[in-house]
Design brief:
Blueprint: H1 28-56, H2 62-67, H3 70-87, H4 100-112, H5 117-148, H6 153-166, H7 168-178, H8 182-209, H9 214-224, H10 228-238, H11 240-254, H12 257-272, H13 283-289, H14 293-309, H15 313-341, H16 345-349, H17 352-377
């Protein structure tokens, strides 16, 4: 019988699926081919963004075509690509090329260059308050409800971290902290993606239907959608100002990953597992789990703000335009990767209880998040 290995902190960033057989492990050639596949799908999304409005111009579909932006095309093509690689049995071979985390974090650092540092400073106060209250409320609810449905403590920790903080990244950090099994991490990651995909389209629509201001809409989106990539996609659909606020709010939540991971490490070591020889977590673990891209995002904002303030307006606009175009490319590749990574099979394996816990917690997150966003950002102006 095969022994199930826990996810240690060092192994938490490894593949979330079961170890592949030696013959199916990715090679450099397959990684290169996979990256080319991702790039082709990304180029297709950029092409469709220009083609569809041009074809629909002058027809009854013109207005609708203009409302469909690159995140929708990228995710749709990613799902098509997912079907192709699944049918051809190539999913594991090109897995190393599907770098959602790298693409999205690079795109967000580049986004920082177009956000004035003063906006980050101004939004930091309410964003921190929202993050602390929302994460605490949703995490404790998910932990409590998961206990009522008798979920394994380690799976409860993964689901609570994922739904309350920032999806897959938080689940990975939590998995390392509580030494969860690889299949538990794979399941939690799949749940995150399945719930995040419809949120990309539903939340911007709801924000518009409710008449929310761009700041409130952005804070709601940033505080509720579980993955940074999906937050960026939804924010882009809601508008540039909403995107900026959503990014700042989500970056604030991301910054708390390390705090939650260290707290979980301590809780499981001294309370749940009661290990006598467990090491007491310290500042080193906090820094190890801190999402470094947040620092890059702030640094890019500071550099961009300085450059715009010390350069001729025309030249600054040209350079920032190039950076923004590069940012869009990285985000498109991230959205394509979201579609490519969806694994429906993982959801069938664990039954209905984790889905019920995650879904209920997501609804609580929506309600509490909307209230906090409306309270903290109702009179926010950039």
């Amino acid at each position: 019988m095969t022994r199930t290995e826990p996810v240690t902190p060092d192994a938490a960033t490894a593949t979330t699926a079961a170890d592949e057989a030696p013959e199916s492990r990715p090679t450099l050639l397959w990684t290169v081919l996979g990256l080319l596949f991702v790039l082709v799908l990304g180029a297709g999304a950029r092409w469709l963004e220009d083609l569809v409005p041009a074809v629909a111009k002058g027809t009854s579909l013109e207005k609708s075509s203009l409302a469909i932006e690159y995140p929708i095309y990228a995710i749709a093509l990613g799902l098509v690509g997912n079907l192709i690689i699944t049918l051809l049995g190539l999913r594991d071979r090109i897995a190393d090329a599907v770098r959602t985390e790298f693409f999205i974090k690079t795109g967000l650092v580049l986004l920082g260059a177009s956000i004035n540092l003063s906006l980050i400073v101004k939004a930091a106060g309410p964003a921190i308050v929202q993050a602390l209250l929302l994460i605490t409320t949703v995490f404790l609810f998910t932990w409590y409800f998961g206990g009522l449905l008798k979920l394994d403590d380690k799976l409860r920790a993964l689901l609570a971290a994922a739904v309350s903080i920032c999806g897959v990244s938080a689940a990975i950090a939590a998995a390392g902290a509580v030494r969860a099994r690889r299949e538990q991490l794979a399941y939690a990651a799949s749940l995150v993606i399945v719930f995040a995909l419809p949120s990309i389209f539903i939340l911007p629509w709801l924000a518009d239907a409710l008449g929310l201001t761009p700041a409130v809409a952005g804070a709601w989106i940033g505080g509720n959608i579980d993955t940074t990539a999906a937050v960026t996609a939804a924010g882009a659909l809601a508008g540039e100002e909403a995107l900026q606020i959503a990014t700042i709010v989500k970056a604030t939540q991301n910054a708390l990953i390390g705090v939650v991971a260290v707290a979980l490490t301590a809780w499981f070591a001294f309370k749940v597992e009661k290990s006598a020889d467990a090491r007491r977590p310290g500042l080193g673990q906090l820094w190890e789990r801190f999402p470094k891209f947040v620092l890059g995002f702030v640094a890019a904002s500071a550099i961009g703000t300085w450059y715009v303030n010390n350069t001729a307006a025309a030249e600054a606009k040209k350079v920032i335009g190039v950076v923004n175009d590069l940012r869009v490319w990285f985000l498109i590749l991230a959205f394509v990767s979201i579609g490519l990574q969806l694994r429906v099979s993982a959801l069938r394996e664990a039954g209905w209880r984790p889905v019920a816990v995650f879904g209920t917690a997501a609804l609580v997150n929506l309600a509490v998040g909307l209230g906090l966003a409306a309270l903290l950002f109702h009179d926010f102006t950039s």
